[in-house]
Amino acid sequence: MTPTAACTAFLKDRRLAVGTLAEVVAALAADPAGRAAQVFEDATGDLVKLGRPAEVARALAPPSPPAPVQPLAARFDLLPRHVVWLEAQPGGPSAAVRRLVEAARRDGTGRPRQARDAAYRFLSMMAGDRPGFEDACRALYAGDATRFAAATADWPADIAAYARALAGEGLA
């Protein structure tokens, strides 16, 4: 995780801080209750384990420069027949990969699934013992925003709102 990763911190049912990991850690350090907060990565819904101050400092160190961009065949472990097939597609390899990615997204194997999984990871940590948790999870994986909202209606507003935000395009 990089210092610029988007994160959200919660203390029990209340959202304490939102921003990059560096901003959230700074906000928690300034708040006496911040030591007890739980921090979640917005992209994955994973709990961020901050650890000891030295570990936090290491996590917040500037990232190393990105590696230079390589040609398609060098970035992916493709067999020669894969490269031949990609190059023969209308629009070339880039267009073919874009079409494959869009097809995976429509089939639920791309971003909508990742969004639902991120919301589920957060819900498991913050709402696993709340009434309606199982109904919320069923609605989440069915992509039913209306049922999800109904199942989470009695939950604290910050938890329900963050779960909806994580689910994003996973809820229709």
Account of the protein in words:
The protein is built from 9 helices and 4 strands. The chain is α+β, with helices and mostly antiparallel strands and 172 residues long. It folds into 3 domains: 54 residues; 35 residues, no CATH class; 60 residues, no CATH class. A 4-stranded antiparallel beta sheet has the order 2-1-3-4, with helices on both faces. β1 and β2 form a beta hairpin. The two termini are 29 Å apart. The model has no long low-confidence stretch (mean pLDDT 84).
Q: In angstroms, what is the radius of gyration?
A: 20 Å
Number of beta-strand segments: 4
> Could you say which structural class the secondary elements and strand pairing correspond to?
alpha+beta
Low-confidence stretches: none
Number of alpha- plus pi-helical segments: 9
Major sheet size, sense and barrel closure: 4 strands, antiparallel
N/C terminus separation: 29 Å
Which strands sit side by side, in order, in the main sheet? 2-1-3-4
Outline of this structure?
The protein has 172 residues and is an alpha+beta fold.
